[in-house]
Amino acid sequence: MSCATLTTQPTIVKTVFLEPAADLKNAVAPGFELLGRVSVRNENQRFSGNVHWQHTIQEDTILLLSPLGQAVAEINKNDAGVSLVTSKQEAFYARDVEDLTAEILGWRLPLSGLQYWIQGQHSPLSAASVDLNGEDRIIAIRQDGWQVLFARYYTNLSDQASAHPRIIELQFEDLSIRMVIDNWTKP
Asked: Which domains does the chain have, with CATH numbers?
């Protein structure tokens, strides 16, 4: 019996430190719609299911679904604030997504940064440390206490510039969130 040896090319990484954007009024993530899967794990909570996220300049709507497709929660964020409606049709309101999801779902959803990270970008709203590979593609971001790892990119073969993350892993203290994006749509 023979053994095959796999050799991997070392990843060339450079780290870039980025300051917040000077013009925060115009720091808005471009619109998108995505379908995917999410798993969340911390010391008190485990969740896995599907996600449907519609992001526009004015509003975010995130639908979390069980693996069988039943609604678990719907999160809406706009200029008026944040609402979260549970599967039992209980409605909760707050100004901040992270605090509301931590209180109701048992884990924090970092929506202000995630709207950028999910597109393979750092958020211009705060300082960030970004790791790039040899092709200058972002492979990791450290921002606002979160570590964001891009395990795989989803590419549209007809347009390499439109490459988006396919698998993204987020870490914050004991919280781990993994998202697999199955379908991207840009307006």
From this structure: 14-185 (2.50.20.10)
